[in-house]
């Protein structure tokens, strides 16, 4: 039988391993270098004239002209609430009431007590007048009579204050709408015991609609009354609403993101929508604009003041003076002419 030769494995020495590793690193480095130095085609765009609008974006919610959050001034058991969300109400309309049984009894008792105090005082007055009539030479009243009269008058006045407090408590047992509008919340049902902190109902005046935008405190110096704005609501993505900044609230708040913001009220121009309180949306507040301005895409700008223009088969670096900017474009005040071509992707020129 013929035996076949056996191939022994090649022994890899440390030296050969190092040489192979260095070779792979060199090949990989050459590949990366070629990829980075590979010239990408330059893209050009023309300098054009258009209206540039500089704006500030802010999120916010839809709101009415005025909102009334209504609560009872004293705790008690809710007897009734005669409105529901969506109902229209008018100023002075009764919306809800506590159980007034005990309050009515208390008022009746205090009124009866007042009558008793007044009767006692009237008797003292009569006695003093009779004394003065029977003693023609005596002017005024005795000290004892004066003390008795004063005590009775104080008791009468204190009881009258108690009656006023009882009447006010009975009046406060009902909630009246302070404004005309629609009911947006009714969180309590009849029979519940409520406190002074429980929100019973909310009424919003929708005679005018507003967008309450949260503007970052760093941008508030750019906002002024009368600025134009455009609002989009998440529920009406296909429709935009115009408006005007009508109020800058003189207080800051912390937004859900943790940023410090100022509430800006934008009065909407007759939006034809069904009012839903606190609908989310976005506002673009116009802080400046330039009509018929030379402009280029912001991406074409290098180091905030240079561009690359087409120069024969090559490009030339040109310094420009810029103006206001929108989200995409920037105004060119000098350094370029209309229809002149500039490099749209200058990063490829820099890396050339």
Largest sheet: 6 strands, antiparallel, barrel
CATH superfamily caption of the domain at 57-65 and 208-289 = Efflux pump adaptor protein, beta barrel domain
Helix percent band = 25-40%
Distance from N terminus to C terminus (CA atoms, Å) equals 70 Å
- Which strands sit side by side, in order, in the main sheet? 2-9-12-11-10-13
Structural class: alpha+beta
**Total count of helical runs of at least 4 residues:** 4
Q: What is the H/E order?
A: HEEEEEHHEEEEEEEEEEEEEH
Per CATH, which architecture of the domain at 57-65 and 208-289? Beta Barrel
Per the principal axes of the C-alpha atoms, what is the gross shape? Answer: elongated
Average residue-wise pLDDT: 85
Query: What is the third-level CATH name, the topology of the domain at 57-65 and 208-289?
Result: Elongation Factor Tu (Ef-tu), domain 3
Percent in strands: 35-45%
Radius of gyration: 42 Å
DSSP summary, beta strand count: 18
What is the CATH top level name of the domain at 57-65 and 208-289?
Mainly Beta
Uncertain segments of ≥5 residues (pLDDT<50)?
none
Family: Belongs to the membrane fusion protein (MFP) (TC 8.A.1) family.
Pfam families: Beta-barrel_RND_2 (PF25954), BSH_RND (PF25917)
InterPro entries: Beta-barrel_RND_2, MdtA-like_BSH, RND_pump_MFP
Keywords: Membrane, Transmembrane, Transmembrane helix
